[in-house]
Amino acid sequence: MSDSLSVGLTFQDIINASSTKLMSGGYLSTIDIFIVLIATLICSIIIAWVYRYTFQGIIYQKSFTISIILISLITSSVIMVISGNLMLALGMVGALSIVRFRAAIKEPLDIVFIFWAITVGIANGVAFFKLSFMATIFVSTVLYFLVKVPFKISSYMLVVNYISGKEIDDKIINIINGNSKRFRVRTKNIKSENVELICEVKIKVEENILLDELNKIKNVNSCS
Hints:
By secondary structure, this protein is an alpha+beta fold. The protein has helices at 2-7, 11-24, 30-54, 62-82, 86-96, 108-125, 129-148, 166-178, 207-215; strands spanning 156-163, 180-191, 194-203, 220-223. Strand 2 (180-191) and strand 3 (194-203) form a beta hairpin.
């Protein structure tokens, strides 16, 4: 009788049983662990693909893509270990608190992908498969459209190098003011007679027009 019932189990029944065990902290079978790791692997591969497609940095690093996948898998494994066991969870937090990670994150968006990978690992580790897959698909779609939508540059950093002089200062400020909607002087570095003026400008004309007018001023060495 028991054999016929076990044979009649569907894949959905196995998923439901695994979810109950994971959320209750019960004994995890090999099938339960396998389901969690496969679900996490699928989600993390999608995240890695989205990262590769939406990458806008200078140098693409394959190691970071691999790290995204491994972070999700390791997080799911840790969550399965501490799931439903308060004492073990507190001990794990204490053990991990002594670990210090040092990695230079050059792109702000990389932090988002790391947090996304950890979130997927946590969700799958407690058998929230529906949440994990829906969130992965939704965030991927949002990122896809954000990359496709062009964002107009609203302001520029204007750098002008010139020889110091009261009249020249006034001319430069007047030209910048006349060709921009608004501007703000960020820094003004003075070394002997040489001056480097850095302004944040929101221009209302073509960039080249502003640069050409500045270059016509006597004693202006360069501007960009």
